[in-house]
Write a structure and sequence with these properties.
Blueprint: E1 8-14, H1 20-36, E2 40-49, E3 59-67, E4 72-78, H2 81-108
Parallel strand pairs: 1-2
Antiparallel strand pairs: 2-3, 3-4
């Protein structure tokens, strides 16, 4: 792929120490998103651990995709951090594919324009 600008990946941990294996795992999942959508400018992933929460929702992963047009935001909760990252990547992938499909449908099915006055006849 020849791209002029490479997408930026920002990983941050809230009440969580980011281990090298966790950073690598997030990078692998983000690479899948970057391969599917070339116009991603920035992907910000926030991983949060709340020890006071119930066991099933202890880890939260939030993703913010900056792309041409409206930005995409997603959030998932899980009992394991790696599982939360995987679920977040799947959710963002579905959102990006749905967005691409909507733009494709809009491009191939133009809507007629309503004019208030009739057009003059050509001579």
């Amino acid at each position: 792929m020849n791209r002029q600008n490479h997408p930026e990946l920002i990983v941050s941990g809230i009440h969580l120490e980011l281990t090298p294996s966790l950073k690598t795992y997030v990078q692998e999942k983000a690479d899948r998103l970057f391969r599917h959508e070339e116009r991603i400018l920035r992907l910000r992933v926030e991983l949060e651990c709340d020890p006071k929460e119930k066991f099933g929702t202890r880890f939260k992963a939030k993703g913010h995709v900056t792309i041409d047009g409206p930005a995409l935001n997603a959030s998932v909760e899980s009992d394991e951090c790696h599982k939360a990252v995987s679920l977040l990547a799947d959710k963002l992938d579905r959102m990006l594919s749905r967005r691409a499909l909507l733009f494709k449908v809009k491009r191939h099915h133009p809507h007629p324009i309503e004019l208030g006055t009739p057009l003059p006849k050509a001579i």
